[in-house]
Amino acid sequence: MKGKILLVALLVAAVLFVGCTKKAEQPTASLKVGMVTDAGTIDDKSFNQGTWEGIVRAANELKIENKYLKPTGTTVSDYVKEISNLYDAGYRFIVTPGFKFETAIFEAQTKYTDAKFVLIDGTPHAGDYKSVVGPNTVSIFFAEHESGFIAGVAAALQIKEGEMGFIGGMEIPPVQKFNWGFQQGVAYANQNYGTNIVMKPENVVYQGSFDNVAAGQQLAAKMFDKGVQAIFCAAGGVGVGAINEAKARATAGKKVWIIGVDVDQYAEGIYDGTNSIILTSAMKRIDVAAFDMIKAELEGKFPGGQTLIFDAKNDGVGIPANNPNLSPEVVAKVNEVFAKLKAGEITVSDQQGNLIK
Amino acid sequence: MNTLISIFPYAIGFTIPLLTAALGGLYSERSGVVNIALEGLMVIGSFVSAVIIHDLYPYLGSTSLWIGLLGAMIAGIAFSMLHAVASINLKANQVISGTAINMIAGALTVFLARTITGSGNIHIQMGFIPTDIPLLSKIPIIGPMFFTKTYATTWVMLAVLIISYFLLYKTPFGLRLRACGEHPQTADAAGVNVYTMRYIAVGISGALAGLAGAIILVTYSSEFNGNVAGLGFLALAALIFGQWKPLGILGSTFFFGFAATIANVSQVVPEFKNIPGFILKAFPYVVTLAALMIFSKSSQAPRAAGEPYDQGKR
Fold first, then answer.
1. Which of A46, A227, A272, A324 lies 20 to 30 Å from A304 when distance is taken between CA atoms?
2. pTM (two decimals)
3. Helix B2-30 and helix B172-182, axial crossing angle in degrees, nearest 10
């Protein structure tokens, strides 16, 4: 019996000492950047992937250490748990993508004052929507309406004449702003470049989820049946279904297009080895945002306590650099429009106004 | 009316995986083994076919789709054997072993998918392309309803349904299988090996459920994402709604498929605009609940379904 107690005491001591040595090792030279993923996988072709790509780029170029953790659920406590795990493992710079982290970051920024937090597409609050960006947190937003606008201009210029539609996921501000910006872009092209694109109210829909693939496929099929030539999808997994339908039709020789969202979705729309049904994509440069913040931290210029907007002016939104489905003339015109947007000659409203939905 | 006709092909596309899974459930339950593992087996099928097609498509093109379907069936059989051993030989509670498979399937496939591709999603390059049947698609009304934009898998599954009908009702094998689900002791006394029959039935059930998961992948979804959106459980409901009969299942699954499709596309169809979306979305489930309540008195459920067969019990 005595022997057993001794053994236990020894084990406890061993654990304690191991703990000590670990702590002593912690302050390493390079920055340790951690990320907690939102619902969905690290290669969701959206927020998680964009954020992670920025962090990986920083790891390659700026020599930081990086790691991501995927929470088991999508509740605040799941998020806080993973943030704590990262913190306990010595990660003092934590990036989280998506508005769902708002309350989790609010908790974390007060609990771990010596860590830095980057919240993309959201602002920390205690659950009451009263924004409190702590001195160790930076909150980043994107001008989705400008992204949608420029994609709308590009799509209208390329299609020239016909009908277009929009499929959104949930009816929430980032998705709505994409929609409204897109409509303004189409209208701008109609007015200034003589295109004739119609967007009927019935072809502007919010499916109501981000994961109903079957509904995405069926909605897109119905729109294409009614003569819609291009659909702008800001709908996550619902968009996957729409892309699938467009690929099937393109293979059968029909001319249909999808305008991608968040990241360059060209590769996802490839249907016969080289051709893709992705006309262009309304991008949010999430990777740029994540990378810039890490860089700022390394340079000692972390904009803690601020809310930053990534828009056309700082190249935070736009369409991909390469658009194989847009003709060179269209690309040239789009660049003109983008320059005007940058210079502030064109303003895009982020309100519904008299736009559809 | 034209709108209704034009959504028929999409409704059929949505119905087929549901029909396939429900048919799988039919074999199993008719032999006396409740199979609530349909959902999990569908996930397994979807995963295996996604891996196969993802890897083989660059070399084999659309042939890889058929290999993927076959692979899904084999994986479905393999996994259903776990259920079979537990519920036939070990006489475990069939609901519990089914639930276990549902849980294993979701966790295992996501784990493997993340290990293989680094993410929980597996994207396939291309699925089946819906095609119009020559001549038949030109028939007024019926043509656009049933013969346009059809998937190859739709015709395969309708053939399987007809074969199943004959197999279950017109052959000695079918009679024995049904006898095992109604009164296994009597079947045993008549010289039928109840264990073998139940193994075969659960195996067929696994093959069809796996196939159902794969059909979702190669028709409308094109991406494995760790679940099949609850279609396995919907298939169970359709099985009960269809009163454990092949043609009843055809009717009940098509009802679900059609109602779900209407709910999905209602937003872009002006005719449905005035009906709130949530009513359309809830409609099939409300009807199912009502139907289950009405039919529960005259239920045609196999009498021995859910009971492990014990030779010593008379």
1. A46
2. 0.85
3. 70
